[in-house]
Amino acid sequence: MQDNRNRTGRTLIIKDETALAAFAARIAPLLKTGDVVALRGDLGAGKSAFARALIHTLSPDAGEVPSPTFTLVQVYDLPQISIWHFDLYRLEEKEMDILELGWDEARRSGVSLVEWPDRLGGLLPKDLLEINIDFIKDSENSRLVTMIPYGAWRERV
Ligand SMILES: Nc1ncnc2c1ncn2[C@@H]1O[C@H](COP(=O)(O)OP(=O)(O)O)[C@@H](O)[C@H]1O
Ligand SMILES: [Mg+2]
Which one, out of 48, 71, 113, 137, has a CA that is 20 to 30 A from the CA of 99? Predict the structure, then answer.
């Protein structure tokens, strides 16, 4: 993994999904109840792959981690912590409110991993770890991953 800093955050060139999983494994131990991680990137960039790897790092026995494309949220009550994995892409179409998905409980009782975090609108917290996953032109498996801490997260990464 190459590693360099810029003004907005830390950028990594990730060569394949295994490298992305290794990155997720480094983020996993930093997380505590009440945290929100915003996962940004186009469809197929690897947001769900990141969440899956992170959950499996915390608990290898977590079982299958499907993309919450249709359920919009999947909750994993792991031995140490609860992980709420949201995919808010379809939120508007389904006319379902984020609060109905259990947002308040997620904030109180677990870590929230949120794909399409802009759907949160005013509920997007000011303390936030943002992870951007971008495609790299002409490469199927490499990604540019940028980690941007906001608020209290600036002291944590
Ligand atoms: N470096 C990589 N990181 C993550 N996924 C990758 C990578 N290279 C290829 N892939 C593939 O890209 C797809 C990512 O899908 P997914 O995680 O569901 O995307 P998203 O949730 O961002 O829409 C998977 O099929 C995965 O195998
Ligand atoms: Mg996804």
Answer: 48
